[in-house]
Structures are given as C-alpha cells and as structure tokens.
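Readers of this paper often ask what the protein records in our data store actually look like. Such a record has a labelled line for the sequence and another for the backbone structure tokens. Nothing more is needed to write down the fold, since each code stands for a local backbone conformation. The record that follows is passed on verbatim for readers who wish to inspect the format.
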Amino acid sequence: WAGGRRFSEATGMRIAALLIRRRLASSSWSEAASGLWARRSSADDVAGWSSLAESPQRPGTVRWRSLATRTSPAADPEKLTVVKLKEILDSAGPWPDGLKRSSKKAELVAAVREVLTATGAHDAAATRSLDRSRADPEPGGGGDADIAAAASLSVEESSTVFAGPTDEAGSNTVRDEEDPVEVLMDMREPGAWYPLARAMRREVHLHVGPTNSGKTYSALQQLKAADSGVYCSPLRLLAWEVAEGLNNRDGVPCNMITGQEKKPVDGARHVACTVEMADIRRMVDVAVVDEAHLMGDPERGYAFTRAILGIPAKELHLCGDPAMVPLVQKVIEEVGDKLTVHKYTRLQPLKVLDKPLRSIKNVRSGDCLVAFSRKAVHQLKRDVVRQAGLRACVIYGSLPPEARARQAELFNDRATTGYDVLIASDAIGMGLNLSIRRVVFTTMRKFDGEQMRLLEPPEVKQIAGRAGRFGQGFGEGGTTTMVAEQLPILRHAVAAPVVDLTRCSVAPTLEHVECYLEAVPGSTLVEALTALCRDATLPPHYFMATCDGMLAAAKLVKRLPLSVEDHWMFAVAPANVEDGGEGAKALWTFADAFARRGRVGVRIIKRPPARAPETQGELNVLEQAHAAYDLYLWLSMRHPAAFPERELAQALRQTCAAAIELGLQQSSSLRMEREWDERRKGGDDVGYVDKTRLRECVERVRAEVDKLAAAGFGYKESDADGVYGSVRFKAKFKGEDRLAGVGGDSQRLDRDAKEKGERPLKKERARRAREEMVSSEEDDKAWVCLSHMKRNREK
C-alpha cells in the first residue's frame, strides 16, 4: 500500500508494518484479512506491494479507500455513498431479489451488510470493489487461492510471516517502540516520494531569464522534436494555447488535460496539461514545466515541486525566473540528476519612460492600463471610452478563460477590430501573448488579501515585461505610471537585483492522510491535515504549503457521511470557501447531494439569464455561475458516475462565457458601437461578437436537457427532494454601475443623441434587449415571448 506511492520503499514498509501489526492485535480484524495483508507485506512479496500500488485504476475513481474502511466492513455501509454501495453490490454478483438501482439508501445498506456477512466480512469481489475501486484482478495472483491461504494463517503465524520488512538502518525487523506517527511526520526526503523518477538519472535543463527572452520557446522546440512529452502549465489558457499550436501549427498530435476537461487526440503521445494534472507514473522523453519559479508559492507551489521532483522524463526542462537557480541546483543535486543552466537575455529592451501618463486623455493605441481590482478595471474602461474616445478590452482574474482569450485576440488585432486599449489586472503577468506598446501602472499598490502594500519588484518586472513583445511589431517596450510621484518607485522596482528563492513548497497527500487516520484511530480529516501541516519535519529548503483553503473546505463538509477519499475530494476542490460566500454554498450543496442521493445534477445551480450583462452586478452573477459550473466539471472528472451531467454543465459554462463576451463587447458607447456596426455591415472584419454564438450555446443546452429527459432524468423526475435551483448567485457589488460609457449619465447621452438625430438611450437599450432575449429558465421555456412583444407593438 505504501511502497510505491509517497514514501521511499523502506519508510513505506516501516509505516505499513507498524500499522498492520496494530491491526493484527485488534479483535476487529478477521484472521482471513490479517493473513492476506500479512502475505502482501512479507519480505518475499515486496514486488506485490509495488504492483498493488501502481496497477491501473478504473477511469474516474478515487485512488484508495482508507485502511479503516477496508478492515471494518461492518461499520462501513452507513458511511458509504449510494454510488459506492451499488459498486459493492455489482462486484458481489447478482443483486438480491426485489432490490433495484433506484432503491433507497437504507435498503442498499442492508443488502451490502448481508453480502459482507455472507462472504465472511471480505469476499474477494467485495474487497476489490471496496479496497481499490478498480476492475483489474488482484495483482500477484490473488483470487480464491490467496483468500484460502490467508484464511489458513492464524494471527500468530501472520505476525511471524510479517517480520520481513527492513527499516532505514537495514535491520530485518521493525522496532515495536516506533511510533507510526513519528515515522510519517519524517518528511526529510521529498524526492524519495517518487520512486519511478528516482529509478532513472534525468537530464534537467534550467532555462532562466526575464520575460520576453525566449526561454519557453526554446524548451518547446525540444518538446516538439521528442517522440513523447508533456507540457505543464500554470494556467488552463496556456495549456490550451500550447495544445492548439502543436496540433494545428506544428502537426504534432497532443492531448489537453486540465482539472475540468480532457481533449484526447488520436495517436497523441504528447500532453499539454495544467501542472496539477501532471502524471508522475508515465515515462516520457521530454517534459517542460513553465513558470517553474512558482515552486516557492505558498498556495500552488507544491504542484510545481511535485512536477520537478516526480515527472519521469529523460529530459526535464524548467522555465522561469533567474531567482530559482540556487534552489533548483540544491534540489536536483539531492536527487542525483544532472543539471544544465541556460541563461537568456531580453530580446527587446524594456525602458522606464521619463514622463508619467498624467491623464486618461493621453492614452494611445497599443497602451495597457494596469489596475488591481475588478471595479477599478471597469472604471478605467468607462474613463477611456468617455475621455479618450477609444475602444478598450478588459482582462482580470475572475474573467473566464474563454473571455480572456477573446479579449486578448481583439486587442492584438486592433488594426481591424478597433479595440485600441487594454485595461488589465496583474492577470496579464503570465499566460497571454499581447502586443502591448506601453504598460501604464495606474497605481503601485495592491491589496493582497490582508493589507494594501507596494508591489514587489518581481511582480513589477513580470507585468512591465509584457511591453514590447518580440515579433509583435514594437522596437522596444516602455512602461510608466499615471502620476509623477510613483515613477521613482517603478524605476527602483525594474532596476532591483534578483532575490534568490530559498525554499520550495510541498503539501500533504491523500496517502499521508490515510496513514495518519490509521495510526490515530478516531481522528478526522481536519485533524489529520492540521497535524501534518503543523508537525511535519522538512528539510530547511522546503516548507509546508498553506492549507487554509483545504482546511476550510474540509470543515465545511465534515459532518456529512463521506468516506475519507470523498471527503478529501471535496476538500481539495477548486472552490473559494474561506469567505463563506456562494462558492462555499455550491461546494456544500454538491457534497450534500452526493452523500444523500449518490447522483448530483448540475441543475442544482440556478441558471442566470442567458443574455449580455449591462451592469457590473449582472456580470458578476455570470462570473460566479461560470465558476460553479467549473467546479461541477472538476468533480465530474474525478467521479463521473456521481456527477454524470457533464455535457450539460459544459454547455451551460459556455453559455455564461458567451454572454460575458457579448456584454464586454457591447460595453462601449452607443455612438462607437453604431460606427463599428456600420463598418461590419460594410464587410469589414471589426471583431464584432454577435449573438449567434450565444444562441448556439442556448440551443445546445436545450438539446442536452432533452437528452436527459429522454433518459428519465427530466427536471421534475430527477429532483424529488427539490434541490434544483437552490444555488443562486447574487451580485457582490451594490448599485447599478454600468459596464461602460453608456451608464451613469443617460440624460447627457440622450441629449447628445437628440442633437445628432439618433435614437434616445432608453429606446436603444430596449432595442438591444429585444435582440438579446434568449431562453434561460430551468424548464427551458422562453422567459420572454418575442412574438407577443411584436403583437403588442403592432397594436
């Protein structure tokens, strides 16, 4: 169980020895089960342990059931979900007469107890279902012969057979006085958690340099030339961009895998994925980890450290900031790999301009204005439209990836689209190729979640470096501030020397948690995470990742009857639950429905109106709904049987993204939109996002709902307890702040329109609303009947 996962072989066997010896002394463990586990742990069967840990799983299942679940079946059925109960019954053979898949949980629990009792607590089939949830047979032979042999061993004989594993000092016995918790907390060799990577001597190439230096490009050239490879990205958008480039431009078949979706390509031996999805069990020729300096990030750094230590690649290419060179050298030296450092310089110079911008009226085509809050970004857009008379795109963190990519595309093609200016947050620091002429910091301070602070030099360099991208038509990049008082701060940050990273992040895994729960009976996931984060012993150049979000999610669902693996799944889900907002409500509702019903429908989320938002509040509702659909897709990737409405969730997410894109595009002034409308009607490609895509998304939603209804999962049929539509989103912003120059001064705009002989503002909005009306209610009936409106207008 522990030999091939997150521990070195010796440490893993020591922990397993101590835990199983405890079980052997416990009257709750049957002799048959103790004998089987003793055979698995004997010195002559270490290979069996490794195959047990590394054998393939059924797609979509969680990796392991806890030891407590495996060894106490009599108490388990009450704690298992409906889906798992059905899995056990399926594995045990034909279902009892009168029992149906639609039966209540109490009936399924009773049937599972009868099956376990009739098979002596652990039938081989039930063990395969409950222990590992996979369809392959027992490794190393398994089956009835192993069960019979195990049953013939007494507890004393089992203890004798089990005395094989060696400890770290090389002795043939495990000391009785050792505390398994102390052994577990000894994490001084994180590299030993990845035995497949340690079994080979990798060639590690470290590509370091500032932004716009070509380091990632060089690494990708090696990836393209390899027979197999993987690209690990910090962002979904980057993974999608690399996969699209390899498939369409370079002719290299490449799969794309993120936490929310998989896009397989026939014959592909390359993968572009987010760094959290990197497969440490698949050997490749070349692996590329982009923005590898994020290994020092307290929240996501553990994923980069895992990729750097654990990917079994002949060549591993790490791209990032020069600050990580000493730390990577130390880490790679410890694991015995070969390291080569490649240093790059900026392809085009970055210059701090002598004068500040001073006024929005001085904004020019190709400029990027940087702000650090969503509200400030939209306010700047309104100011640019009104004062500079220019079209503007916006990019910020909570904007869906699809909308961000579209806004970047409109800005880069500004010669034809007319979107001259970009308003952005620090989200542009990585992941997007933008043709920016000048980066203007509207402020040099940001709120980091706790306090307002000055920007750190690395943050300033990352954002300012987006100016003057090589190959985008600019000779050099320029950066400045809005006011003269902040210009010295910018100069100091750009000229600041590199400060080396000193530590990288690691995080507890499910295997660590399961070990702790077995070693400390009666403890919970929250207690295990707290202890692991607080008491683990790490090398000086490692630190434990911030687990606040994970702990908050674990506490949120701790009272639900979930297995350890399911509790872990919801604890690590990508939902913001610390503020107790709508993200927390969505996660808890999904977990509650999972525990009570077994089948979770995406229609638990109340659909927002599928139309272009006009205010910041309406836009915020769409962004929250998009995040909730993302969460459902993430859960569906890990448990497709319990979260089966994946296609509908995908269609609903795309509908939100299309509505957001339409709202952002229509947020310029009416005069400007009319001007570009005329150009579009004249045949010009002006980047106009019409309503066709939104209508197509709505039609796809209707088609998916019809499919579910035909399969017996209509709105009323599948919502017996009335949870559909219970997750509703409210705007986090008060007031009716408009998304662009059309709001806040309607009388002036009406007066200007009358002077020019144009349609007044209210009538123009009504005309747009009639064009944008599309279906959005749960029963898929149109919330406004356009024909009825036409009849009234005719009357």
Summary: The two ends are 76 Å apart (CA to CA).
